[in-house]
Amino acid sequence: MAVIGGEVREELREKVKEAYRVTLPSLFTSQIFGLFGGTFLGKYFETIRTQFPGLLVVLPGMMGLRGNVFGSMASRFSTMLYLGDLEPSLRDRKVLKEIVLRMLISLIPIFLLWAIGVATGIKKNAFDVLLIVVTSTILVSFILGYFTSFVTIFAFRRGTDPDSVAAPLVASMGDFLTVPSLVLFILLIEKSPEAFRLFNYSMIVLFAVVAAVSRVRKAEFLELKQVFLTITGLALLSTVSGSLLAKFSGVIQASVILSFIYPALLSSFGNYGSIIAAKTSTKLHLGEIEGFLCPKAFTDILALFTTAPVIGLTKVLIGGALMALTTGASVPRTVYWIVLTYPFMALFIMLYSYAISYFLFQKNIDPDHVAIPLISNNSDIFGTIYVVLMAKLMVGA
Asked: For residue 158, which phi and psi values (nearest 5 degrees)?
């Protein structure tokens, strides 16, 4: 027992070093991406809330969907690379096919999210909102697909575990692209509706051409049936986050800083969960986890937990600075609630992620296909609830 305990402690020390050497830089980089998107959201939050309210219902789903779809792709590529099923090159035909497939399974959930928003009574500028989300999905998915492939393959070729860096970078790149693209399309519609519709048609043509070049077959799409059903179901579930965001948009805007760091908060919670899910999935496939309470399985969680206070504090500091530069508003003193509670929320997400990944694998369900999307979606819901609670604490509502 003493020998086993010593091995676990030694592994934990190594994992902490890896967390600070490899994962923390990627988490911090992804945080910068998220805060960049949050700056757009914070600055134009009032415009979105009053002129395009349907986007608030769709926004968490769009953010989560891209993290789900391409985070799952990164985890799948990582496993394939370790098993030798994928060449570590962007020229491998499987890369383009996988990107096109992920674009296909992204469009239907987006339409359903929009339809739910309209059905619940948010009809103002509804058709423009539909055009915005469809165009954004095609454009961002194309860019994000190749970014995901590059990050995963590059990390593998450099001898770095892709599971440690891909998930946070992919999810945050999705946030980096999502909110600014929505805002830019809003500005384009307001300036020239004809130009936006022309751009919309161009994106549809681009999608058709890429799909034809990739030669995706029906059988290959059906292989991802489980992923598609999971993604669609979780996208519908994300309306919980969207409804909360829309309902409490007033109190969130009143806190000011939370409207700026909202994407970064959701992204970081999803990052922590996705990293644990990806690592757990790989270890389960390799037979390195013998039971649910296997001590070594929790070393990754404990190591990553040590980085959470750093991420939480810098998120508030950088987000507050961006808020001050953009709006001139000062950071409220009650922001300490975020600094104090953030690490424990991240810990909860990681423990939840490990449990979900483990039990899915026991049911012969590949965590690469289901765990990443499920955890990313649930993290958005938990994160939105967390943001609402923080907003109420900060403004005294």
From this structure: -85, 0
pLDDT tens readout for residues 195-237: 888 888 888 888 888 878 877 676 666 666 666 777 777 777 8
CATH code at 2-395 = 1.10.357.20
Q: Give the pLDDT band of residue 397 (cuts 50, 70, 90).
A: low
Chain segment 67-99, per-residue pLDDT in tens: 777 877 887 788 788 887 778 777 777 788 888
- How do the domains of the chain map onto residue ranges? 2-395
Q: Could you tell me the pTM of the whole model? A: 0.76
